[in-house]
Amino acid sequence: MRAPGFWWAPPDRLGLLPRLLAPLGWLYAAGTARRLRRPGYQPRVPVICVGNLTAGGAGKTPTVIALVERLSARGHAVQVVSRGYGGRLKGPVRVDPARHGAAEVGDEPLLLSAFAPVWVARDRAEGVRAAEAAGAGVILLDDGFQNPAVRPALALVVVDAARGFGNGRCIPAGPLREPVSVGLARADLVLTIGEDSAQARFDGLWGADLHLPRLRGALRPLAMGMDWAGERVLAFAGIADPSRFFATLRAEGAELIRGEALCDHETLSDTLLRRLEAEAKAAGAQLVTTEKDAARLPAAWRSRVLTLVVRLHVADWSALDARLTALGL
C-alpha cells in the first residue's frame, strides 16, 4: 500500500483527518512503547542497528551498504541480519543469490548479499546468533529499531531529509512508528539523507528536535559507464518515494517520458512488465528501474531493463567514526 499524502504534510499544516485519527496514533505509539519494554538478546559482538522512525523507506539499504564498506575497510568481518521483508522464508537462513530469489528472502537482503554475508530471520535474535556462529565480528541489523529482540551497541536513525518526520503524528494519523522525541531518546546518531535544499528544509522543520550527533548524506548515482544524458526512458519504481528516483534520472539528463510509481516492494509480474515494455517500445524508450527493484525482476527480464545504481555519499563521517572507536571498532 502507498502511504496517504496527508502523512507528509508539514506539521504546521495539519488537516482534519490526522486530527481525527490522532487517538489511534496514540494507541499505536503506546503499543510500540509496551513492546520495547521486553528484554532483548545481549549479543557477543557489537550490533549496529540501522533504523528509522517512519513507516516506509528512508535510505536504510544504501546506508547499510556504506557501513559495510566502512567497517570492512577498518578490518572487521561484517555480517548483516534482516527480517527479509517480502520474502517467505522465516530463517535464520544465509542468503545465497545462486539459490534464493526475492520471493524467498526479500529484495533488500538479496541486494545486500553482494556486499556482505546476509542472514534473513523473522526472529532477529536468532539471526544475530546465526551470524555470531558464522564468525561475524560486527553485525549490522537492517531495520529493527522498534523491535526489542536484540540489544544493539549503537543505533543509527536514518531520515529522508525531504520528508523529515512527516506531519509528526503516529500511524495511522501520520507516518511515525513512535513519537520523534521518544525514538530519538534511544538513538545514538541521526543520518539525514538529501540534497542541500532538503537538508535546509529539514533543519527548518525538525532541527530543533535533534540533540544527537548528526551525519548529512546524499544519494549519488554511480557512473558505471552509462551516460544518461539524452536517453529516452520509461522508469518504474516500487520504493517508498518513487518521485525521488524519477527526479534523479532527470538530474542525470535522461528524457523521462513517464514514471510508473509502484507500491513499495510490489511484485513485478510478467503482465506488468510486458505492458511497460510495450509502452516504452512505442515511445522509442528504454525501461529503467532502481537497484532494489531490479532484485525482484524475473530472470527473463534482467537483460531488458536498465538499472540506475545510487550510493550514499557522506562528506564527514567523524561523528560515526568517534562512536565506532569508542566501541573498539
Description:
The chain has helices at residues 16-36, 60-73, 102-105, 107-112, 124-133, 180-186, 196-206, 242-251, 270-282, 291-294, 318-326; strands at residues 47-51, 78-82, 93-94, 118-120, 138-142, 154-160, 189-193, 214-221, 232-237, 255-261, 286-290, 306-308, 310-314. With 329 residues, the protein is of the alpha/beta class. The chain has two domains: 47-220 and 313-326, Rossmann fold; 232-308. The protein has a nine-stranded mixed β-sheet, sandwiched between helices. It has a four-stranded parallel β-sheet with strand order 10-9-11-12.
Report the order of strands and helices: HEHEEHHEHEEHEHEEHEHEHEEH
Whole-number count of domains = 2
Widest sheet: strand order? 3-4-2-5-1-6-7-8-13
CATH topology of the largest domain: Rossmann fold
CATH homologous superfamily caption of the largest domain: P-loop containing nucleotide triphosphate hydrolases
How many strands, what sense, and barrel or not for the largest sheet? 9 strands, mixed
* Percent in helix: 25-40%
CATH architecture of the largest domain: 3-Layer(aba) Sandwich
Ends apart, CA distance between termini: 39 Å
Low-confidence stretches: none
Strand content: 15-25%
Rg computed from alpha carbons, rounded to a whole number of angstroms: 20 Å
Mean pLDDT: 93
Shape: globular
> What's the number of helices?
11
Please count the beta strands (DSSP E, at least 2 residues each): 13
Q: Find the structural class using helix and strand composition.
A: alpha/beta
The CATH class of the largest domain turns out to be: Alpha Beta
Pfam families: LpxK
Catalytic activity: a lipid A disaccharide + ATP = a lipid IVA + ADP + H(+)
Family: Belongs to the LpxK family.
EC number: 2.7.1.130
